[in-house]
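Retry 2 of 3 after timeout on previous attempt. Resubmitting structure tokens to design endpoint.
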């Protein structure tokens, strides 16, 4: 399972990341992986985002931030000198037994599957 956390539907970086996962869907699926995205957006926002970009994987709405908090994806952020709390863009690779095999915290939104594929290839 590839479980990825992202800040917000329909924002430039999140859209680029989601479309990158969409474009690599068959490659990762061929290696036995399913993908799921999580953000604090609501279900309708996820439906619209998924339909607009034809995303072939599940997006989980987590308005209460329970999953986000459980996976440590909520953090203090800084933008233009302003501090605020928000979702950290991160990806978990979860093995067949449900154990976390690897955590990616420096995500390349233009090639979100690249480092995942490198990890999978190096650990087979």
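Retry 2 succeeded. Sequence:
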């Amino acid at each position: 399972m590839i479980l990825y956390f992202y800040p917000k539907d329909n924002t430039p970086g999140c859209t680029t990341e989601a479309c990158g996962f969409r474009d690599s869907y068959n490659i990762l699926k061929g290696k036995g992986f399913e993908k799921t995205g999580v953000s604090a957006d609501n279900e309708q926002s996820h439906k619209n985002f998924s339909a607009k970009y034809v995303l072939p994987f599940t997006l989980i709405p987590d308005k209460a931030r329970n999953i986000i908090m459980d996976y440590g994806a909520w953090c203090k952020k800084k933008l233009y000198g302003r501090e605020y709390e928000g979702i950290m863009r991160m990806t978990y690779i979860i093995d067949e037994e449900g154990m976390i095999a690897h955590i990616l915290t420096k995500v390349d939104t233009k090639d979100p599957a690249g480092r995942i594929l490198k990890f999978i290839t190096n650990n087979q």
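Attempt log closed. The two ends are 15 Å apart (CA to CA).
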